[in-house]
Amino acid sequence: MDSDKTLKDPFIQVVDDHLASNDPPETKAALDTLVDRGRSTGQAKAMVASVVRIEMQEMMATGREFDNVKYAAALQKLLSQEA
Asked: What pLDDT shows up at residue 1?
């Protein structure tokens, strides 16, 4: 990855938006847990963004709306794998 990155990763932007609005609150909780476990903030955001990416891809593929319950479960799965 080059250091002159001019475009922000759109999934990181979604994570930032979730954090700014605290909606859904599971995003901040997952990020805080990952940081508490020794990940840098950037690493933690990238990990949460990978969950956002999967949820958004499924939304687009199926034409459904964001499923907060499914997203929260996916974040919990990520956290259990990183324990």
From this structure: 47
